[in-house]
Design brief:
The chain is α/β, with parallel strands linked by helices and 243 residues long. It has helices at 43-50, 75-79, 97-107, 113-126, 142-154, 172-187, 199-205, 223-228, 233-242, and strands at residues 3-14, 17-28, 32-36, 58-63, 66-67, 82-85, 160-164, 191-195, 208-213, 216-221. The chain has a six-stranded mixed β-sheet with strand order 6-7-8-3-9-10, sandwiched between helices. A four-stranded antiparallel β-sheet has the order 2-1-4-5, covered by helices on one side. Helix 3 packs across helix 4 and helix 4 (113-126) packs across helix 5.
Length: 243
């Protein structure tokens, strides 16, 4: 299997607050990694360091064999290969669904508008939103907005997809439609790192579950190992509260 991402001894601080205290992780092509853990444990910061939305103090992030840090000259080019979906959808409200989708491919990747429109139609079909192609974000439900955000990330043909609690801002009845799209992506072979509390999704889709607490990987294993027989007391306590 091809190694997509390697994180070595990653440390990140905000002022005096050390948020990541030596994270180590390897991700291989086609894997779905689910990261769980208490709020404030460093999960979101870790994701933001991967595509360098946050700088880090020490350690290494190696993506497709190349180190990523603030000195990386082609950082924007690397970012096009790492899709990211946030808690809040970050769609441009003054643009239609189609315009949101074709903006980055035409501006960053310089593909023609015609090609981008055709691609957008295929991806919107995939996420079940082709009928919303000309709608504006204000006229969409939270679940539809999040599916548009996923579609927008897919437009760049990423090698790796990062999901930062993509369902936590949604009403409970809308969570399922977003998780179905993510399950479809996982089954299609997309390499994914997902921060979530949706343990049913983790059980069904994850190749590995990573428990991050207080800035370190406290436990790692298959869904069965982590959910049925966790070894770390913090993992046991956390799962008792959410399962």
């Amino acid at each position: 299997m091809n190694k997509i991402l390697e994180v070595k001894n990653l440390h990140k601080s905000f002022g005096r607050l050390e948020v990541l205290k030596g994270i180590n992780l390897e991700i291989f092509q086609g894997e779905t990694i689910v990261i769980i853990g208490p709020s404030g444990g460093g999960k979101s910061t870790f994701l933001r360091c991967i595509n360098h939305l946050e700088d880090y103090q020490s350690g290494e992030i190696i993506f497709l064999g190349k180190k990523i840090d603030k000195h990386t000259s082609n950082l924007n080019e690397i970012r096009t290969k790492i899709g990211m979906v946030f808690q809040h959808f970050n769609l441009f409200p003054h643009m239609s669904v189609l315009e949101n989708l074709i903006l980055a491919p035409t501006k960053v990747k310089k593909i023609s508008k015609e090609e981008a429109v055709q691609k957008a139609k295929v991806i919107l079909e995939r996420v079940g939103l082709i009928e919303k192609i000309n709608a504006y974000p204000d006229n969409l439900s939270g679940g539809q907005k999040q599916r548009v955000a996923i579609a927008r990330a897919l437009m760049m043909e990423p090698v790796l997809m990062l999901f930062d609690e993509p369902t936590s801002a949604l009403d409970p009845e809308l969570v399922g439609e977003v998780l179905e799209v993510m399950k479809d992506l996982a089954k299609s072979g997309m390499t994914m790192i997902v921060v979530t509390h949706e343990m049913g999704f983790a059980k069904e889709v994850a190749d590995r579950i990573i428990f991050i607490d207080k800035g370190v990987v406290a436990e790692e294993g298959s869904p069965e190992e982590i959910m049925k027989n966790p070894k770390n007391e913090r993992t046991k306590s956390f799962l008792r509260h959410i399962l």
